[in-house]
Design goal:
Helices cover 10% and strands 28% of the residues. It binds zinc ion (2 copies). One zinc ion binds next to loops.
Length: 102
């Protein structure tokens, strides 16, 4: 499967919103409305992890080069991942939800 195929919309399993693909060339890996993600990656982007658990947003991290990142914790296996905040795209991450993580 090409990277283009992977970057398509999905229905959020947590809040049920229809999520559109990113328009800025980035890769959407969490819902912009509730910020939940899915545990599908071993290393970022490799999609090799078979856990498939829902990942809850548990905090915000500031990276000097990458900017703000959301810390996700898997509700099934407990693994933590950090994901870049989606901005400058259709459906950017909800600022109210991001502020809740502070
Ligand atoms: Zn959602
Ligand atoms: Zn997991």
């Amino acid at each position: 499967m090409s990277r283009k195929d992977e970057n398509k919309g999905f229905i959020c399993e947590h809040c049920g919103h229809k999520v559109l693909p990113m328009t800025n060339g980035g890769y959407r890996n969490h819902c912009p409305f509730c910020l939940y993600s899915k545990h599908v990656d071993g290393a970022p982007g490799d999609r090799r992890c078979l856990c498939n658990g829902l990942m809850e947003p548990v905090g915000l991290n500031y990276h000097s080069q990458k900017g703000f990142q959301i810390i996700h914790e898997c509700l099934r296996c407990g693994q933590r991942n950090v994901n870049k905040v989606a901005e400058r795209t259709v459906q950017p991450d909800e600022i109210d939800e991001l502020l809740r993580l502070f």
